[in-house]
Amino acid sequence: MNFELSFIPDRPEKPRESGVTMMMDKGLSLRGVENFIESSGHLTDVVKFGFGTSYVAKDLKEKIELYKQAGIRPYFGGTLFEAFYARGMVDEYLQTLDKFDLDLLEISDGSIIIDHNEKCELIRRMAKDRTVLSEVGSKDSGILISPSKWIKMMQTELEAGSWKVIAEGRESGNVGVFRPNGTAHTLLINRIIAKINPNDILWEAPQKNQQVWFVKLFGANVNLGNIAPHEMIPLETLRLGLRGDTFFEFLPADYADRLKQVNDGQDDEVDED
What we know:
The protein is α/β, with parallel strands linked by helices. The protein has one domain: TIM Barrel (Alpha-Beta Barrel), CATH 3.20.20.70.
């Protein structure tokens, strides 16, 4: 960091198991990737080529190489896996990963229905020589999954070999673990974390209010994904308590209480005027 500040929460060095940040690349240019790496590469753990964008993106191989050289692990979005699966082309999908030298992949069933036993078998198969992220939750707001089923699917996918399970939120942040208005589905999330280690979950949280909510619940080193390129630095300041929304989260209680009292006093004076 550029200077010293006290009471800043520790962030593990990359490669890290907690506090992972996943950026969603929905079509950055080659120059855009270079600029992103220059500004935010040090804060980024993994990059997802969103949904099927890798099929049409220019300079894909060069972009992948840039990310890897910067210590960032790129991978194709789960929807692309589903597109291959739906066409009976799982072997061709693996060949595509080899072609682009990708050792990280996502297995999801958010757009189509895959028998869960088969999904776990796919995870086991691919986790033998690759790192697997698996996603739980539907992209269809009309499909509701009970908390017990969320928990069971997450448990079995982790047991099958997933590095982390992704809690579906979509790039819009209004399905899965979020309500249609974008607020967190607190009952569902509380039920999940009562049974699943939060370090094993990567929460899709594209909206600022969602990121704030997760940082306040889990602390600086919560795993968050579907972050827009221009939001990587703002997110890191949320993690570190360097933004108004989380300013008091990491200050000692006596500091925070004293500062809040001062602020309250100033507010009273303003009200009296």
